[in-house]
Amino acid sequence: MAHALQREAFSDGKVLLLGDAGDNSGRERELINNMLHRQVDGLIYTSVDRHPYIELIQESGTPCVMLDRVDPGLNVSVIQVDEQLAAWQVTKHLIDHGYRDIGIICGPREMLNTQDRIRGWQLALEESSLIINPSWIFSTNYTRAGGYEATKRMLQGKPPRALFATNEQQALGCLRALAEQGLRVPQDVALVCFNATQESAYNVPSLTAVRQPVDKMARAAIDMLKNWDGEVRRVEFEFFLRVGESCGCQGHEVQPETR
């Protein structure tokens, strides 16, 4: 997403200043204050916290667009996909394969997007009358190290037959931990993930993953700031499921389903 935003901003004669809070809420506030003191033309903001610093930004008068799931009560413009539906569909894909024991590696439980992804996973299991095993919910941060450590924890007990990692970085860490134990994907543990990039297609095995139309979302965010009039807008884009080899398939693209 950052690359797409940089490209779209540059095409409009703008420069994107990138700030990475690294899942640290205090660092996030520092970055926002720094950007506001620089009197930037606008902010494209994705928060590590359930309660982002929207009031701080809005009090400054700086245009702001959120790129993530936010509390519906927040009066802020948002660009997003339906993360619950996406999580439901990728989990259903595993169920359609015949997998019944399906675990999840998720982000911090207090984050709204984590809650959406967990709920989508739960709904898919419930609709197929499958057991939701609380011991197969592994919360960690959205990094390779997080996915690696969560998988190591999982392997201390009886592992599920399939796993849904809620972002690509977690999935890559998971692959490393499984390989260290001599476990193959998908032969021993099937794996799917959310929010993948083009890199997932070049992994071995290629990852079955939910992908977002990042180019269109980036263009919409830049246009929203460029044409800012203060009106709150919420734009939802369709995701798609890119089927790779990590679930047991040969690879193809699937459009969103409806529940």
TrEMBL record:
- One Pfam family this chain carries? Peripla_BP_3
Q: Which residues form the Transcriptional regulator LacI/GalR-like sensor domain?
A: 92-226
Which InterPro entries does this chain map to? LacI/GalR-like_sensor (IPR046335), Peripla_BP_I (IPR028082)
Which terms in the Gene Ontology molecular function aspect does this entry carry?
DNA-binding transcription factor activity; transcription cis-regulatory region binding
Matching entries from SUPFAM superfamilies are given as: Periplasmic binding protein-like I
Do the record's keywords include Transcription?
A: yes
UniProtKB keywords:
DNA-binding, Transcription, Transcription regulation
Cited PANTHER family: HTH-TYPE TRANSCRIPTIONAL REGULATOR GALS, LACI-RELATED TRANSCRIPTIONAL REPRESSOR
Please identify the protein, giving its name as recorded: Transcriptional regulator LacI/GalR-like sensor domain-containing protein
